[in-house]
Structure formats: C-alpha cells, structure tokens
Write a structure and sequence with these properties.
mainly alpha; two-stranded antiparallel ribbon; 421 residues
Length: 421
C-alpha cells in the first residue's frame, strides 16, 4: 500500500479501515466532536479523521478511541466519545483562548469571522453549546466556564452594539440621570451597501419595489423585519425571515437575520469572503412611525383571530372524544368518495368502488404495521408544514417586537453617521 500524501496515514491500517467503514455523516460528526473542520470530500474527511485518531492513540489502543495505524489488534469505539478526552480538550482550548471570540466559535468546525451573519454565528454557537453544556458534562467547573465563554463569544459578535452602549453608559455614570440625552434618531451612509436581491419563498419570483409599485423605503421595512409584503407572482405574504436572499458578490443564497441589517457581513459561502451591507433608503420619521403603527394594529388583529381559532378547535376536539375534528372530516370524506386514500392506512380506492366499499375498507382497516407506516409518512409531511408555519410565526413575532415602540432605533456606525435634527 502506498501513502497517498506526505504525513497522512494509510487508510488500510487498523485505524484507517475503521474510518472507511463509517458513513459520511458519522465521519463529519466525529470531526465536529474533535473540533476539526467537517468540510471537504469523502476522502479528505476520512484522512483527516484517521490523522486525529492516530494522534490520540499513538499507535496503541486507547479506552473509548480507535487503535492507531499498525498498532495492536482489537477495536475501540466507533468515532469519538462525547464525554471523552476530545470534549475535555475542546473545553481547555476554549478556556485558553477566552476573549478571542471568533476563534472560539470557529472551534465548532465552522469558520466564522466578526463579519459573519448572525445565522452563521448561531449555527456555530449551537454546535459548541451542545458539546460543552454543563448538563452534558456533570456540571463541572470547566464546562461552566467554557459554556460562558461560548455564550459571551456569540453575544459579542452577534450584538456588538449592545456592549458599545453598555460601555458608554458606564462612562456616563457620573452624570445625573435627568440630564442625560434622550434617544436620538440617526441615519447612516450606504458605503459598501447593496439593495440585495430577494425572492419569494414559494414561486421564486424576484421581489422588487418598483415592479410592485411600492415606495423605495419598503426595502428598509422588509429587511428590518417591520413589515411583510405580497409577492407579485403568487400573492404570498412573506417577510425577511422567510424570503430567499442572495449575496451581491457570489450571487448565492445566504441565511439572513433582521439584526444584520445595520451590519456589514459575509455570506459564509465557500470562496466568498467579501463583506457587504444592506442599502438604507431615505425615509421620514413620520412615515416610519405610520408604518410601525399600521403593522402593530395588523398583528394585534391577527393574533386575536388565531387565538379564537385555537379555542374553537380545542372545543371541537373535546366534543368528538378521542378523534380530532380533522380525523373525523378525513374519514367522512373517504366514505363519501371525495378522498382517494384511506386516512388510516393510505389504501387507494380503485375505480368503480362505491360508498359501501369505502365504508367496509375503513371498518376493516386493522393492519397496525401499515397504519403506522402511513402515519409516519403523514407526520413527515406535517412536520414540513409546521416548519413553514413556525417560520411565519417567528416572522410575526419579530414584527411585533419591532413595532412595540414607534421610536426610531439608533443604527450602527458605518463611518458615516448623520444626525437628523
């Protein structure tokens, strides 16, 4: 067997063969557990993991690990143990680099920068917190310190303006509270900013204020999560958290968060490290207040309507016993031959069958294995629908938060803040 590259162990050793038997998802998970990058093709990931296992074992079998290349026979575990030395090493690395926020979050295996979007930072935070959380490490002091460092890194990079305001308040502590300045409204320049391309999440049609006859400032309200707008193609009502966003440099999609509107970020795609901001159109303070008040009233009416629907649905379910109202409707439609598939097992009605045949099929539907399989398929479909519904609800929650106050929010300085008197 010939060595593929220098300094890379042969994959036909004991360690290499065990890595080759692992599925790609298992290899990536083991790399993430080890704090290594899970990016690359299958061969690169296997070799990277084999190098790591070999360095851990040193050619000998280790408890909870994998035996090294050419070391003894016999096996270790499949991948890296989450409670083993790899997590301890990860926590030590986090504590040793406390204060280096971008480096700490990059230990998740996902390289982030201070300019990364909030969605990218959140992903890295979730990966790390799932490993170093005190609840998963017997509430040890090291895990608590590591988790606090990870949390602080996320907060510092995702919400830098909060810490700037805190530092400014500490400097102003000597001033009487009554003499402190009120919140002022600022606008910013558009250097390095673009009116990014947005598409409808359903029909993929481009959303453009000019084509829809909207004011230019509608882009501001959409991107800040203040208001939702209709698609000109399919008339879907969507907001910035459910829309599809495109990087102005590489033209690829990226995940957007309303908190990124006053920041300059990178899209996080491969081979694209250029920063960009989001264009801010001029809008009067009066117009901004009008929009916020209008959206607030719409949200209150919508929340009231949905609460009434949930109460009516709960009362209907109580009246019909164990079956929900939807299940009763589905069975009734099937017996009337208005539904082709049996709502229990998914059996398809054949052409020419009558109402009595549908009733008999429903009455004799007792195959628990088939019923369970069909219900699992339905559950997958419902989970997709629920994820879309949750996205819509999170968008509405963001709107409610943004419109809870009609005062303008101070934006982040791009080097060209202009005070509006």
């Amino acid at each position: 067997c010939k060595m593929p590259w220098a300094n890379v162990p042969c994959l036909n050793t004991t360690t290499g063969l065990k890595v080759k038997e692992m599925k790609p998802a298992e290899v990536r998970k083991a790399l993430c557990d080890a704090g290594l990058s899970p990016v690359g093709d299958r061969a690169e990931l296997q070799k990277r993991l084999a190098v790591h296992f070999t360095s851990l074992s040193g050619g000998k079998e280790e408890k909870g690990g994998v035996s090294g290349g050419g070391g003894g026979e016999g096996g270790g575990g499949e991948g890296v143990d989450n409670s083993g030395s790899s997590v301890v090493d990860l926590m030590e690395a986090i504590n040793a680099n406390e204060g280096d926020f971008a480096f700490i979050l990059s230990l998740s295996g996902k390289i982030v920068k201070a300019t990364s979007s909030k969605a990218e930072l959140r992903k890295a935070y979730f990966i790390l917190s799932s490993k170093v959380h005190p609840d998963k490490n017997a509430n040890s002091a090291v895990s608590k310190k590591s988790f606090q460092a990870v949390l602080e890194s996320f907060e510092r990079l995702a919400n830098p303006e909060k810490f700037e305001e805190t530092e400014q308040e500490e400097e102003d502590d000597g001033k009487p509270a009554k003499k402190r300045k009120k919140t002022e409204r600022f606008t910013r320049g558009n250097g390095g900013c673009y009116p990014t391309r947005i598409r409808c999440p359903r029909c993929k049609d481009n959303w453009n204020t000019k084509n829809l006859g909207l004011e230019d400032a509608a882009y501001n309200f959409l991107m800040q999560g203040v208001k939702q707008y209709l698609c000109g193609g399919c008339f879907l009502r969507f907001g910035c958290m459910t829309a599809t966003h495109f990087c102005p440099h590489c033209k690829k999609t990226f995940e957007y968060d309303p908190e990124d509107y006053h920041r300059k970020i990178t899209c996080g795609n491969n081979k694209c490290d250029k920063t960009f901001g989001f264009w801010m159109f001029k809008v009067s303070e009066m117009r901004e207040k009008e929009i916020r008040i209008e959206v607030k009233k719409e949200n209150e009416a919508l929340a009231k309507t949905r609460a009434q629907q949930r109460r009516r649905g709960a009362r209907a379910d109580k009246r019909v016993g164990t079956q929900t109202n939807e299940e009763r409707v589905q069975e009734q439609l099937f017996t009337l031959r208005l539904l082709d598939n049996c709502p229990r097992c998914g059996w398809l009605l054949e052409r020419g069958m009558q109402k009595d045949d549908a009733r008999n099929i429903l009455k004799n539907c007792n195959d628990q294995k088939q019923i369970k399989a069909y219900q699992q398929d339905l559950a997958k479909i419902k989970s997709k629908q629920n994820s879309k519904k949750k996205g819509q609800e999170s968008q509405e929650e963001m709107q409610a938060f943004k419109t809870c106050s009609t005062t303008a929010i101070k934006s982040v300085n791009y080097g060209c803040l202009v005070k509006i008197s």
